[in-house]
Design brief:
heterodimer; A: about 100 residues; mainly alpha; two-stranded antiparallel ribbon; 2 strands; about 35% helix; B: about 500 residues; alpha/beta; eleven-stranded mixed β-sheet; 15 helices; globular
Chain lengths: ~100, ~500
């Protein structure tokens, strides 16, 4: 699978990273090379093999359904680049 | 008496207990070394006032007979661990100014045991790198130099600041994290012991996430005993990390000197990789001989899917990273660049905040998880991961531990291997399979290359069997008797 500039632009949009034309062209080569290298996994017969999602216990532990955290708005907002009236603020998203 | 900065942690604990010096004196000696060693660029943030306060408080506790397991020991902390009120950058521009309002579980465990924080250590951006040249805060320099060659060498990565600081005697030990070799490879490049515990042994809570199914915290130290001591304190169940395992933490020093008599140690034939440095191959054979002489039975084993570990890793780790790093969007913390719309604000912030290697991995990860490619790349890689784990499971039916080289070469010069990502990835060829299988691994300094640079051997253990792993590592350490020091300190 080789990537072209349009495909790289599409991936960058999905990842929300702005790239310019020169970067897109460089990434076509760099990402293409990495993808060509991982292609070797195609030579292994994986029929009947389960995908491994976690190396630890398959059963996640449960805890009592109790509130153990919260009530710390100031701490939560402490590192916000922009916070107003106790909220995170972002550019307008509704007209 | 040796200089205070030359002591091991175990040695310093004994001296503190005998009242030969205070933690304040011990800490001040390391703060001086930290100042004198600034050219290495090992620290992102120095916290000398906090260190002296913590040391004084430690001296008071000791005088009251309340000494913890690491009472008064000055340590460096990789800048991936959240430290309350202290800048935590993960080596990235995008976390500019981030001072977490909470403390990671692992560092909280260290402070509870009496340890003292010297500062936060430089690292590859978001722990992505094998040379510590991707940090927004600049390269870290290895205190070692090749004989007759004045070029600056990389300390390895991603825990490069941790390795440089401990090797240069600026810290008695340091925390690192290891996703594909980020503790063991820099330890090997700087003549240190580096331990990656079993996945689930240490809590990941409060550690900036890179690849959540692979990341694990561990220590970099100057002796196996020190690594055992630090792990003792760092390990343990944490309800805040559902993948931290609720198993008792044994006393890792209890059997440390029991030797390897009766243990079976495997030598995987697939690790005789092309392009392996001749000196490393010789050292590996020597290491096998040492363990045999110490009473271990050496067994040839096969790990047939070894060659697929790196490409498997370079699908799984970027996939998880692309998801974990989605949180850096300019809204809740760190850097924000303006944009007309919300999406433009995200795109501008992430374009400016991430470096080239992080962008590459986020893009690869986004691609392999995207519609139409998920099964072909991501699910196939997860199946390979099953096969790699099965290789180890079968091998461990026959052996108690596995001996391999830690890295294919000694430390290389700053600037080498920078133009080819895959050449850089090959650094981790011997360490990555261990993360994919979730096993514990330790790098032990075992000899010098022809150029006089440190070389490490790796021991791999069964899951949650760090006690036997450390015991074998101690035998290797005794036989190797590695006493070389970086030239600057010699």
């Amino acid at each position: 699978m080789s990537l072209d500039r349009e495909a790289v632009r599409h991936i960058a949009t999905l990842a929300r990273i702005r790239i310019n034309d020169a970067e897109a062209d460089a990434l076509v080569g760099e990402l293409g090379k990495i993808l060509a290298w991982v292609e070797q996994l195609g030579e292994v017969d994986v029929a009947g093999v389960e995908p491994l999602t976690s190396v630890v216990a398959r059963h996640l532990p449960r805890r009592a359904d109790e509130v153990t955290d919260g009530g710390m708005r100031e701490k939560v907002l402490l590192n916000a680049p922009e916070a107003t009236l106790g909220f995170f603020t972002v550019p307008k998203v509704v007209e | 008496m040796p200089a205070l900065t030359d002591l091991t942690i175990a040695g310093a604990l004994a001296g503190l207990a005998r009242g030969e010096y205070s933690s304040r004196e011990l800490t001040a000696a390391h703060l001086s070394a930290m100042e004198a060693g600034r050219a290495l660029n090992a620290f992102v943030t120095e916290t000398p006032e906090r260190a002296l306060e913590m040391a004084s408080a430690s001296d008071v506790r000791r005088s009251r007979g309340e000494a913890g397991l690491l009472e008064g020991i000055p340590l460096g902390i990789k800048d991936l661990f959240c430290t309350e009120g202290v800048l935590t950058t993960a080596g990235s521009h995008i976390l500019d100014g981030f001072a977490p309002p909470y403390e990671s579980t692992v560092t909280a465990n260290l402070w509870r045991a009496g340890a003292v924080m010297l500062g936060k250590l430089n690292m590859d951006e978001f722990a992505m790198g094998s040379s510590n040249t991707t940090s927004y805060h600049g390269h870290v320099r290895n205190p070692w130099r090749a004989r007759g060659d004045n070029r600056e060498l990389v300390p390895g990565g991603s825990s490069g600041g941790s390795a440089a600081a401990v090797a240069a005697r600026m810290a008695m030990g340091a925390t690192g994290t290891d996703t594909g070799g980020s503790i063991r490879q820099p330890a090997a490049f700087t003549g240190l012991v580096g331990l990656k515990p079993t996945y689930g042994r240490c809590s990941r809570w409060g550690i900036v996430a890179f690849a959540s199914s692979l990341d694990q915290a561990g220590p970099l130290c100057r002796s196996v005993e020190d690594a055992a001591l630090m792990l003792q304190v760092m390990a343990g169940h944490d309800p805040k990390d559902s993948t931290s395992v609720d198993l008792p933490v044994p006393d890792y020093r209890a059997d440390l000197n029991k030797g390897v008599k009766g243990l079976k140690i495997g030598i995987p034939k697939e690790y005789r990789a092309d392009g392996m440095d001749g000196g490393i191959e010789k050292l590996w054979a020597k290491g096998a001989g040492w363990l045999k002489d110490a009473g271990a039975e050496m067994v040839e084993i096969s790990l047939p899917h070894t060659k697929y570990a790196l490409p498997t890793y370079y699908i799984i780790a970027p996939a998880e990273a692309s998801s974990n790093l989605a949180r850096y969007d300019g809204v809740r913390f760190g850097l924000r660049l303006p944009g007309e719309t919300l999406d433009q604000m995200y795109e501008n912030t992430r374009a400016s905040g991430f470096g080239p290697e992080v962008k590459r991995r986020v893009l690869i990860g986004t691609y392999v998880l995207s519609a139409g490619y998920y099964d072909a790349y991501y699910v196939r890689a997860q199946k390979l991961r099953s096969l790699i784990l099965r290789d180890f499971t079968r091998a461990f039916e026959k052996v108690d531990a596995i001996l391999t080289p830690a890295t294919p070469t000694a430390a290389f010069a700053v600037g080498e291997r920078m133009d080819d990502p895959i050449a850089m990835y090959l650094n981790d060829v011997f360490t990555v399979p261990v993360n994919l299988a979730g096993l514990p691994g330790i790098s032990v300094p075992s000899g010098l290359s022809d150029e006089g640079l440190p070389l490490g051997l790796q021991l791999i253990g069964k899951a949650f069997d760090e006690a036997n792993l450390l015991r074998a590592a101690r035998s290797l350490e005794l036989a190797a008797n590695f006493t070389a020091r970086p030239e600057a300190l010699a």
